[in-house]
Amino acid sequence: MTQAMIGIIGGSGLYAIDGLEDAEWVSVESPWGAPSDQILRGRLAGTPVAFLPRHGRGHRHSPTSINYRANIDALKRIGVTDILSFSACGSFREEMAPGDFVLVDQFIDRTFGREKSFFGTGCVAHVSVAEPTCARLRAALAATGVEGLHDGGTYLAMEGPQFSTLAESRLYREQWGCDVIGMTNMPEAKLAREAEICYATVAMVTDYDSWHPDHGEVDITSILKTMHDNVDKAKAMISAAVPGLGGTRAPCPHGCDRALEYAIITAPEARDPALLARLDAVAGRVL
Ligand SMILES: CSC[C@H]1O[C@H](OP(=O)(O)O)[C@H](O)[C@@H]1O
Ligand SMILES: Nc1ncnc2[nH]cnc12
């Protein structure tokens, strides 16, 4: 039986968490390059936790330059079974107001120019991301009952780093039915699925993007202020959710932890040994 270790990826404004027992920042080497930062490892109410600041401490990496593969590989390598991703986002819904949190259940991936898979020439795999976040983790987060929580929402992942034009904002909201927008949760969620790690996103609303007639353009100063106000709520949510996810971990009822079971289609004799070596942590279970 697997022991749960909860990975927490902190987005803009969330660069560390407090209250971890035996906390230490550890360096994790990955064959996929350098992760965003060291990982803060410790225990929360006895449950092993590994925290990674997505942009690095001091916010050094842009959404495009984050090495998402190294981040997910490093978390897998130190034993993470479940990831709670925390992210700042813009809102397309009047009722999803700045300060509210949205438990994302779907994504539209409009990012480009990022490495989106651990697999490729020499080892081809196709996993399903029809349900890109884990319903079991979402339920645990919903049960924390923090104020202003919306259970379900579609997150538009854009490349950035510039915010959207008004026409894009209206398109995503009116034609595509998106609820929130951010720049980082893709390919992160896809890579977590390839690594067989359950993944859930808490999108923390900081602004109304640019569509809202009463709120004007997105402005980074007010985003950072709202984000600053959101951080305590995020930390409270982490403290409330993590203990219930700890202990011996039954197989995920939604199959996130078995995503690779039938996904690799390259014949064993056609596989590239160099790529297989890099896949040791991510896909070692099935290789
Ligand atoms: C600081 S606003 C733009 C920035 O914030 C979000 O990052 P994260 O998802 O890591 O919180 C957004 O996606 C942009 O990268
Ligand atoms: N409006 C917005 N668009 C993209 N990413 C964001 N992060 C926070 N607000 C955002």
UniProtKB/TrEMBL annotation:
Coiled-coil ranges (or none): none
GO molecular function, one term: S-methyl-5-thioadenosine phosphorylase activity
Domain Nucleoside phosphorylase: 6-242
GO BP terms, alphabetized: L-methionine salvage from methylthioadenosine; purine ribonucleoside salvage
Keyword annotations of the record: Glycosyltransferase, Purine salvage, Transferase
Positions with a binding annotation for phosphate: S12, R54, H55, S87, A88, T184
Enzyme Commission numbers on file: 2.4.2.28
Catalytic reaction list: S-methyl-5'-thioadenosine + phosphate = 5-(methylsulfanyl)-alpha-D-ribose 1-phosphate + adenine
UniProt site (Important for substrate specificity): S164, I220
InterPro entries in UniProt: MTAP, Nucleoside_phosphorylase_d, Nucleoside_phosphorylase_sf
EC main group: transferase
Pathway given in the UniProt record: Amino-acid biosynthesis; L-methionine biosynthesis via salvage pathway; S-methyl-5-thio-alpha-D-ribose 1-phosphate from S-methyl-5'-thioadenosine (phosphorylase route): step 1/1
Alphabetized SUPFAM superfamilies for the sequence: Purine and uridine phosphorylases (SSF53167)
GO CC, one annotated term: cytosol
Matching Pfam families: PNP_UDP_1
Subunit structure as annotated in this protein's UniProt entry: Homohexamer. Dimer of a homotrimer.
Function of the protein: Catalyzes the reversible phosphorylation of S-methyl-5'-thioadenosine (MTA) to adenine and 5-methylthioribose-1-phosphate. Involved in the breakdown of MTA, a major by-product of polyamine biosynthesis. Responsible for the first step in the methionine salvage pathway after MTA has been generated from S-adenosylmethionine. Has broad substrate specificity with 6-aminopurine nucleosides as preferred substrates.
Protein family membership: Belongs to the PNP/MTAP phosphorylase family. MTAP subfamily.
Protein name: S-methyl-5'-thioadenosine phosphorylase
Provenance organism: Thermohalobaculum xanthum
Source taxonomy: Bacteria, Pseudomonadati, Pseudomonadota, Alphaproteobacteria, Rhodobacterales
